[in-house]
Amino acid sequence: MNVFKPMENNTLAPNQEITYDFIIAGAGCAGLSLLYEILNAPLLKNKKILVIDKSLQKSNDRTWCFWEANLGPFESLVCKKWDRISIHKKSFFKELATAPFSYKMIQGIDFYNFVINFAKKCKNVFWQEATITNIDAEKITQHKHSLVYGIVKWEGGLAKGHKVFSSILPFENLYALSQTKLKLPFLWQHFKGHLIEFETPEFDDRIARLMDFNVDQQGATGFMYLLPLSSRKALVEYTLFSKSILHPDAYTLEINNYIGKHYPNKTFQILHEEIGAIPMTRQSLAQSEPPIYVIGTLGNAVKASTGYAFQFIQAQVKQIVHQLTQGDKINTEIHQTRHQFYDAVLLYILHHQLMEGSEIFKRIFEKNKAEIIFKFLSNTSTLWEDFKIMSSLPTPVFLPAAFKVVFKRLV
Questions:
Q1: 112: which strand partners?
Q2: CA-CA distance, 42 to 23, in Å (whole number)?
Q3: Cβ neighbours for 208, distance < 8 A, ≥ 6 positions apart
Q4: Integer angstrom CA distances of residue 103 from 127, 186, 321, 340, 371
């Protein structure tokens, strides 16, 4: 497996008495994105930073896909991009041009390597490989002045920082919470993907199969995601929006059935597997309370109605760094527009199964250009574009759900 471990220099010595400017708890997408953004900010790049993660040996555990109209800050990491997408549901099929956007893919290991290699050049960045046991605030009085610090503890050590940014998601606790009665709708986007390679050319790698609903819906919303990297290689991922998570074998069975149906009697090998689950909810997963702030999925950066996260995490860390630079109060919330209301309505419809999820997305893609859909999903659409998207849904379904969201305060 392709792994990466930071060099041993700049590792925190256990007996070292340092008060860090920033402690970043969790070296996943959100933590490393924040680290990279801080190190690129002229007023912050020399601050003392500690990064803590249970494992600094990174593997290719994630694939992030997103859309951009221009060249982005991580363009050199993009391993593939598509300018056309397709949607499938029974006999319905539609292929859409994505211009001016491109749909892009970044592999987790490339992102981890890029940021960590960049950070290792900075002598003010320290690393600690440990499982965090507690993060709390503590008031410390020195020379008649009281300051509140973030205290991060792990077995055999602790660190003190002026600000702590945590992205550590307590998955078991969160899953247990999701199975209880909550005020706000809560679904999981859960998935398993196989990166496969055929012996012969089988794919048109110019087109990303964004949603193929001709799979087992599991009583909820399920689709296959097929992203060809070449004519012989593709990521085939079974994804569901539902209240419960499947056994890993169930995803594998559906992936194998799908490959067997579309590419019968073809020989292939599995190069890589990934599996994960992302909460889709407007429910607050954790509170930011100075000097401790939550980011990433824990900080509700995920778009509630779709599970897309990468670009929203980038927006969140840019917002935080801007606030740090300006000396403003830290606010990690990024879904504060009217799109938050749309997310709540769509999530309410999916959660209560007022309409099949496959039919919702089929109608949206059937009646709109990809450009408008991507803008809507990016929270950058205009009111007229919002109206076009929402009018794709039948009024008898959409309006009652909207009223429920408004009057029950489900946003």
A1: none
A2: 18
A3: 82, 84, 85, 86, 103, 226, 227, 228
A4: 34, 27, 26, 23, 11
* Cα 288 to Cα 150, 285, 331, distances in angstroms: 12, 10, 8
Tokens, residue 39? 């190190």
311 beta partners:
none
Closest CA to 196 of 228, 148, 240, 154: 228
37: how many CB neighbours lie within 10 A of its CB? 21
Fold of the CATH domain 175-280:
Alpha-Beta Plaits (3.30.70)
d(CA 252, CA 82): 26
Residue 48 CA to residue 329 CA, distance in Å, equals 20
- The pLDDT tens digits of the residues spanning 50-67 come to 999 999 888 888 899 999
Task: Tell me the residue type at 244.
Answer: S
Question: In terms of Cα–Cα distance, which of 316, 290, 274 is closest to 29?
Answer: 316
Length of the chain: 411
Question: What pTM value is reported for the model?
Answer: 0.92
Strands 157-166 and 19-25: parallel
Parse the chain into domains and list their residue ranges. 1-168+285-336, 175-280, 339-407
Assign domain 1-168+285-336 to its CATH superfamily: FAD/NAD(P)-binding domain (3.50.50.60)
CB 89 within 8 A of CB 214: yes
Q: CB–CB of 3/27 below 8 Å?
A: no
Query: Residue 400's CB: how many other CB atoms inside 10 A?
Result: 13
Q: What residues have CB less than 8 Å from 318, skipping those under 6 apart?
A: 37
The candidate with the shortest Cα–Cα distance to 63, out of 110, 103, 30, is 110
Q: Which residues of 7-31 are buried (b: 16+ CB within 10 A; e: fewer)?
A: eeebebeeeeeeebbbbbbbbbbbb
Would you say the CATH fold of 175-280 matches that of 1-168+285-336? Answer: no
How do residues 68-88 score in pLDDT, each as one tens digit? 999 999 999 999 999 999 999
Q: Which of these, 42, 6, 47, 40, lies nearest to 24 by C-alpha position?
A: 47
User: Residue 215: what residue type?
Assistant: V
Give the three-state DSSP class for 65: strand
Which regions of the chain are under pLDDT 70?
Answer: 1-16, 409-411
| Mode of pairing for the β-strands spanning 92-97 and 84-89 | antiparallel
Q: Residue 95 carries which DSSP code?
A: E
